[in-house]
Amino acid sequence: MRVSAVVAVSGLSLLTPAAALVPVKFVNDCINFATGFENENTEVLSSTYVLKGTVIPLPDSCALSVTARANFCRVKLKITTSSSSQVITEAWLPTDWKGKGKRLVMNGNSGWGGCIQFEELAWTSGLGFAAIGHDTGHVGAVATGFTNPEVWKDWVYRSVLVATQAGKAATNHFYKTSLKKSYFIGCSTGGRHGLKLAQDYPDEYDGILAAAPAAYWPNIEISEALYAQAVGAEGSPTYLTRAQWDAVDAATMAQCDNIDGVLDGILENPADCAFDPEVMLCGSGQTWLLNGCLTAAQVQTVKTLYSPVTGNNGRYIYPGIVPGAMPSQGMILKYGPYAGFGARDFLRYVVFNNASYDLAQFNLDTADLILDNEWFGAYSNKSDLSGLQASGNKLLMYHGLADVAIPPTASYEYYDSVASNMSLTSSGLDPFFRFFPISSLGHCAQGKGAGYVGGPSQVQFYPGAANSVPAGNSALMSLVKWVEKNQAPKTLRGYKLGPLGETLGQKDHCKHPLKTTYKGHGNPNNRGSWKCT
Ligand SMILES: *[C@@H]1O[C@H](CO)[C@@H](O)[C@H](O)[C@H]1NC(C)=O
Ligand SMILES: *[C@@H]1O[C@H](CO)[C@@H](O)[C@H](O)[C@H]1NC(C)=O
Ligand SMILES: *[C@@H]1O[C@H](CO)[C@@H](O)[C@H](O)[C@H]1NC(C)=O
């Protein structure tokens, strides 16, 4: 054993029994990763061998630490994308890779990106994938860097493209053999990147898993700006507290929970629920404290948020929030005091380059100004997927039906736009594009029901799930089976999980346009009580 190899094994004392198992050649190859590695505009920042079980501190990330789920070589790359921008990419290359199908998976980002999804790199490298992640071109979940258009361009699409190419090159270089299949998984911004890849770079991935995609991004920001104005500041007459949103949810359930035939607090088909917030209006002399009702101003706020967003001259901009979207996820509150995440920062750092821009100034002319600009293709809404169809590659999309941040309606609309552009029925789309609505699932994760499907941005929200739920049933492995065995998914299995990852229920969510339908008898937490119709 070479001494240099030994010292570089992070966190490992040679005196531990595990040291006896260190694969010396693998460790040496890891340390010497940079030797002979070539990829355009790419510099190797570090390469370290990491033992399974190591708690890895993450000083540059949005998380504190992550536990390694495999023995792997951790490679950190810097890719220069212009004279003023760069993308940091990591490749976690597990020892047990050749026997696990020689696969690569790119783990997509969320929100403003800037945080490599380390929990997912751990999860997917533990499943034997060469796991790649990147920072979308800036550090942290912030948008300030977007005043530089090169950084904005990276976030929109360039980061995922260059990280894909570097990740593939790193994998092939390290294992000295060609990887067999590549996959992309991502939720929210990552879901949007997934659609972008399917639309513009359909040959890069054999399989793409796009969850709750933030397609129509500029339109989302317009809707958030208008929602922020509708909700108003905390304490203003239009504002609803968390308890009041929970009451809206309860009223929604009182009106609509039984439409799907079972009272379980879950709407299988929110579109069937024509919830009328007027039922919550206080009668004369009534108050929230005494009667649990809302003022006319608050009822109007609810109506505004649940209605489609339209601009000048009735221009359709974006769907409204769906009934049953979980206020418990807290996101609905962001339209008040937390409006900063999306709309405010988009307007400040991308649209106006003015850090003091206030959302109160937003109006429908600003909306037109936004919609008349390309934003480097941030809409990610191209409905022509003939490139993907011709490539033979697969796009699996799913969306939580209780998603308050990105209404699932947007994904139905995207699906319909593809069908319409390509003049294909759903069975015509089936060979390359399948969409699964997931009832009760919030934005990427959380919710009351069987929302853990083993997809992107999930493991970090369900402690223990990566251990307790069979990986073979995950959305990720459903995609792998579709690509590698031509076993196309008809359902996605969702798990309702307890605090330790224990299974409290299961449901097989059906492929759109079929509906997940209660058989009329049996425990709703049992997947046998449901069928696709
Ligand atoms: C930036 O926004 C502030 C606040 O709305 C406004 O007063 C100011 O005029 C803007 N600056 C520029 C350069 O447009
Ligand atoms: C994508 O969105 C833009 C902006 O709303 C719109 O102009 C364009 O028509 C949309 N494209 C498709 C294919 O729907
Ligand atoms: C489909 O999309 C392509 C590319 O955006 C566009 O050129 C074409 O006109 C669309 N076709 C239909 C029928 O909408």
Automatic annotation (TrEMBL):
Enzyme nomenclature, EC number: 3.1.1.-
Q: What class of enzyme is it?
A: hydrolase
Pfam families, sorted: Tannase (PF07519)
State the InterPro entries in the record. AB_hydrolase_fold (IPR029058), Tannase/feruloyl_esterase (IPR011118)
Q: Which UniProt keywords apply?
A: Calcium, Carbohydrate metabolism, Disulfide bond, Hydrolase, Metal-binding, Polysaccharide degradation, Serine esterase, Signal, Xylan degradation
> What are the recorded GO MF terms, alphabetically?
feruloyl esterase activity; metal ion binding
The GO annotation for biological process reads:
xylan catabolic process
Q: Which PANTHER family match?
A: FERULOYL ESTERASE B-RELATED
- Its name, as the record gives it, is Carboxylic ester hydrolase
Q: Which organism does this sequence originate in?
A: Arthrobotrys conoides
